TrEMBL record:
The active site is at residue 18. The lineage of its organism: Bacteria, Bacillati, Actinomycetota, Actinomycetes, Micrococcales. PROSITE patterns: SAM_MT_RNA_M5U. Belongs to the class I-like SAM-binding methyltransferase superfamily. RNA M5U methyltransferase family. One of its GO terms (biological process) is RNA processing. InterPro entries: SAM-dependent_MTases_sf, U5_MeTrfase_fam. GO terms for molecular function: RNA methyltransferase activity. It comes from the Bacteria. PANTHER family: RNA M5U METHYLTRANSFERASE, TRNA (URACIL(54)-C(5))-METHYLTRANSFERASE. Keywords: Methyltransferase, S-adenosyl-L-methionine, Transferase. This is Uncharacterized protein.
Length: 66
């Protein structure tokens, strides 16, 4: 799925993950395809639990050919 998303021709990808580890894993696929993170935030939507949502914005890097 991440490879298809990276190849879709979008100008920007906003990725929302239910776990920072998932964001880290999937960011690797996007970075390998030439996307660069421009913003990353953690959101504590479930206070007093171990859950942390992660939101990242990716844009094509300078070496990404479209």
């Amino acid at each position: 799925m991440m490879r298809r998303l990276a190849a879709c021709g979008a100008r920007r990808i906003v990725y929302v993950a239910c776990d920072p580890a998932a964001l880290g894993r999937d960011a690797g696929f996007l970075r390998a395809d030439g996307w660069e993170p421009t913003a990353v935030r953690g959101l504590d939507l479930y206070p007093e639990t171990h859950h942390l949502e992660a939101v990242a914005v990716f844009q094509p890097g300078p070496d990404r050919s479209r």
